[in-house]
Input
Amino acid sequence: MDIQDLTRQLHTQNASKIVMLVADGLGGLPRTPDGQTELETARTPHLDQLATRGVQGASIPVLPGITPGSGPGHLGLFGYDPLKYVIGRGALEATGVGFQLQPGDVAVRCNFCTIDRAGKITDRRAGRIASHESAPLAISLRQVSISGIELFVEPVKEHRFVVVFRGDALQGDVADTDPQATGVPPLDPIPLNPASARTAEVAGEFLAQAHHLLAGQTKANFLTMRGFAGKPDLPSYRDVYGLRAAAIAVYPMYKGLARLVGMDIVGQAATLDDQVALLEQHWADYDFFFVHFKYTDSTGEDGNFEAKVKRIEELDAVLPRIAALQPQVLIVTGDHSTPSWLQSHSWHPVPTLLVSDCCRPDPCRRLTERDCIHGGLGQFEAKYLMALALANAGRLGKYGA
Output
């Protein structure tokens, strides 16, 4: 029996509210052995105040030593075992922009990139090209034509777009073409099993035609493909937790993941202030709110320590508005760590704070990497966080006689 089998049996109803505020890539590392992390460097008076009332620990997104992608990282936070429920990035991106995947479709998350005359990547994200520049380029790729395949190309945000292949004999087990490095050419789409050979062939033809169509561009003159995936099937928040759940996110991929687990996507937000305003506006309509903040991750990936510190401080500044709503449970966490020192996701456990009237406060006075090691939650697998949230909200009954 897994944890969701238990929550299905034990969840109860009341009027409590739960807010899960996810600062993507929250965890960090010091730049020097005796230095401070981004979270330790940031001035976070409101988070500090919450820390004195709450209990904290370090969540393990998947397993010790395993570096998660954004999909597995969020699935764990939502209480879904990321080793049991595997969702490709392409399916998340497609669902995030509202595309209705059909059985047999293969969705691919694509990044515009910049290549030089030798075909080597000079920028994996095309300078994080703005959405108003990238969207027309993505739409131009709808000119690609492949015999026997119906193609859908949808802009997403900045350098990201999604491609969906629809046709016979397609499966999503194809290796990414992003080499995760510059100075080398993109990889070829390689099938990981015989059943995906047709998909790899289609992807290769798409790339060949796209190379021709983008040849005149200076920044976004090629693309990489990641996360080939079919349509997933996950149980809903209403089923496993008895919750009316809402997601408030800026980036489509996180909306897609939330939609796949049965959350409603609330409003359109461009800034963190917009997101909090939507939270306030829809407070009476839902039991659970997932609020996603992206920029602690992207600044970490860019290797910009100071910018990540500022983003953490930006997050701290909105906490009084969230606290003023008086949620019965407020969780502040991340889906994974993204230390700017590494410029990538990492395997490090993620600082996690839970505040409720019935939590057992620990001695920690700040939410930081060093503090969370000594927190009352200890180190725990992220997939158990939702059970803790339900228990603290009075929404989980007793197990057994």
The longest helix spans residues 305-324. The chain has a mean pLDDT of 96. The chain is about 30% helix and 20% strand. The longest strand covers residues 106-115.
